[in-house]
Each structure stands twice: as C-alpha cells, then as structure tokens.
Amino acid sequence: MNHKINAFARIGGIAGIGFAALILLLNVLVLVPAGLPTPGSEPEDAVAFFGAEAGAMRLGTVFLPFVWVVATVFGAGAVAAVRDGERERGEAWALVGFAGILLQNLNMTTVSAVRLALAHTQAEESATALWALHEALFGLNGTFLALALVGLSTAGRRGGVIPTWLAAMGFGAAALQFASAVLTPQVMDGGNALGLLGLTGWLIWVAWLVLYGAFLIRGRR
C-alpha cells in the first residue's frame, strides 16, 4: 500500500538526517577529541577537564542552537507524515514521540548550560556540585529519548512510513536508553560500565534518525 508524504514531512526527513550529522560532528570533532568525561567519571577529573577546556565548551555550544532547531523540525515532520492516519485511528503516538523530542531539547539545553557554567567556575566545591547535576540530567535524558523512539517508531510503523525492522531498531534503542535512565544513580556512583548501555542506545538512536529521515524523504512505501 502506498502512503503519500507531504512536503513538510520531507523537510522533516532532511532535518532528521541533519540532526544526526550535527550531533555526530559535535562529538567527533569537538567533545571527544577534547576528552569530555564520560558518565561515571570522578568529579575531580571532570572539574579539571572543564577548567582546562573552556574553549572546547564554547566551540561546542555554537552547534547547539542548530541541533535543537533541526531536532524540532524532524519531530514535527514525523507528526505531519502520520497525523491523518492517526486521527482516523484515534491514536497520538506521533505526539508522544514529538513530546520526547521537545523534552530532550529542553533537558540538553540545561546540560549544555551546566557545561558552560563548569567551564567558567573557579571554586572547586561549586564545580563538583555542578558536575553532579550534569551527571543526573544527562543520565535521565534517556527517558525522553526513549519516549521519542517509542512514539515515533510506533507512529511511523502503524502509518506505513517506516518498515517493521526500523521500528524494532527504535524500540531496542529505547529500551537501552530507558534502562540507562533508570540506572542513573548507579552510574553516578562510578558505574562506568553501566554507562555503555546509554552509549549503545545513543549510537543506535543516531542511526535510527538517519534511516527514519531517509524514509520520510522517500515519501512512500
């Protein structure tokens, strides 16, 4: 069965691929080379990093307004692609997913603000407290990514926009992200290995974004 996709949904598809590209570039070109501490790192190591790499944090912040704009357009495009069918079925999975996108934008705005604050904080006690806040917010962000993945995967599959295997990929990433969020206290206590759950889920999320965007651009299945 063919499913027509409107022009705005295709714009959303392009934005989804742009979103994935920007967050990859931010990490590969700026944050990882600078040595950004991973979840579960010792507070003193994190404080030392932010004190020494304020320039990297400022550079990374340049990417972020663009990241949040294209993320929002992607979510809105996914809603546009399935809204007629969902209205007929009395469903709102796309809105659930879009809410997840908006909430993760809000949460990551706070995370990024904390990183900038860390880069400009001299007092060690204040910096340690800010790092703990950063860890908590960053870990709990998995909740919102899981919401976006489940909502948009369900809407896309039921609306005929994406294939079953891509929806399953989204559900798998959502499970990893949600588990990572639930385990945030353990990660903050130094459970670096547990942080791999969130990292794996994040990598799948990026691949899912690119593929979902490609299906939105293609316009029919």
UniProtKB/TrEMBL annotation:
It comes from Glycomyces harbinensis. The lineage of its organism: Bacteria, Bacillati, Actinomycetota, Actinomycetes, Glycomycetales. It comes from the Bacteria. Keywords: Membrane, Transmembrane, Transmembrane helix. This is DUF4386 domain-containing protein. The chain crosses the membrane at residues 12-36, 56-80, 92-118, 130-152, 164-183, 195-217. InterPro entries: DUF4386.
